[in-house]
């Protein structure tokens, strides 16, 4: 029974998307779907949890450390375009 409900929802969404004539709205919808797919993949791969304050600070410290090392030429950085394409 749940399979029929999912199929019905899927078809309803497809019908609604096919009727959208606004390019900006379609782009925002596409970006939203991509973000949600990534979140679902993370949840499937590992137990998802909100970052604690300590985890967030540790992540930022690591990012700043890596940025400093990249500026000093001790670590190869990634092109900004690659990073932006991931978002």
Written overview of the protein:
This protein is mainly alpha-helical and 87 residues long. The protein has two domains: 49 residues; 38 residues, no CATH class. Helix content is 76%, strand content 0%. The chain contains four helices and no strands. The longest helix has 23 residues. It is elongated, with a radius of gyration of 20 Å. The model has no long low-confidence stretch (mean pLDDT 83).
Spell out the blueprint of helices and strands.
Layout: H1 2-18, H2 23-45, H3 53-71, H4 80-86
Helix content: over 70%
Secondary-structure element order, N to C: HHHH
Quaternary state reads single chain
- Total strand count, please? 0
What is the distance, rounded to the nearest whole angstrom, between the alpha carbons of the first and last residues?
36 Å
Number of helices: 4
Measured by DSSP, the beta-strand proportion falls in under 5%
Q: Largest beta sheet, briefly?
A: none
The unreliable regions are none
Average residue-wise pLDDT = 83
Instruction: Compute the CA-based radius of gyration.
Output: 20 Å
Q: Estimate nothing, just give the exact number of structural domains.
A: 2
Apparent shape: elongated
Q: Helix/strand-derived class? A: mainly alpha
């Amino acid at each position: 029974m749940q399979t029929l409900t999912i199929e019905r929802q899927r078809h309803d969404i497809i019908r609604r998307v096919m009727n959208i004539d606004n390019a900006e709205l379609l782009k925002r919808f596409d970006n939203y779907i991509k973000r949600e797919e990534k979140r679902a993949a993370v949840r499937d791969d590992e137990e998802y949890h909100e970052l604690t304050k300590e985890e967030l600070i540790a992540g930022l410290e690591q990012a700043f450390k890596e940025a400093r090392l990249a500026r000093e030429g001790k670590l190869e950085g990634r092109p900004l375009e690659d990073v932006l394409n991931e978002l």
